């Protein structure tokens, strides 16, 4: 049996200037995509640990482990 969720085509369409574009709904429909909030990117490692990735004005990246309730006990 084919999982229909994994067979939805991503359709590329030109924007009003003829540039490549994709429907915004495609990005919203991706499972497991990184969560972004303001200028932060939240990534999950293979073991489930969450990290906040930020960049400064010089292009330096910083990854901070997100605290969970388990970390506070």
Fold and architecture overview:
With 73 residues, the protein is mainly β. The protein is built from 2 helices and 6 strands, in the order ββαββββα. A hairpin with a 5-residue loop joins β1 and β2 (20-22). The model has no long low-confidence stretch (mean pLDDT 76).
Spatial gap, N to C terminus = 45 Å
As a whole number of angstroms, the C-alpha radius of gyration is 17 Å
Helix content range = 10-25%
**Low-pLDDT ranges:** none
Mean pLDDT: 76
Largest sheet: 4 strands, antiparallel
Q: Within the largest sheet, what's the order of strands?
A: 3-4-5-6
- So what's the oligomer here? single chain
Structural class call reads mainly beta
Would you count the extended β strands for me?
Answer: 6
Following the backbone from N to C, one meets helices and strands in this order, namely EEHEEEEH
- SS field, number of helical segments: 2
Envelope shape: flat
Task: Assess the beta-strand content as a share of residues.
Answer: 25-35%
Which secondary structure elements does this structure contain, and how are they paired or packed?
Layout: E1 12-14, E2 20-22, H1 24-28, E3 35-37, E4 40-44, E5 50-55, E6 61-65, H2 69-72
Antiparallel strand pairs: 1-2, 3-4, 4-5, 5-6
Task: Please sum up the structure shown.
With about 70 residues, the chain is mainly beta. It has helices at about 25-30, 70, and strands at about 10-15, 20, 35, 40-45, 50-55, 60-65. The protein starts with 11 loop residues before the first strand and ends with a helix.
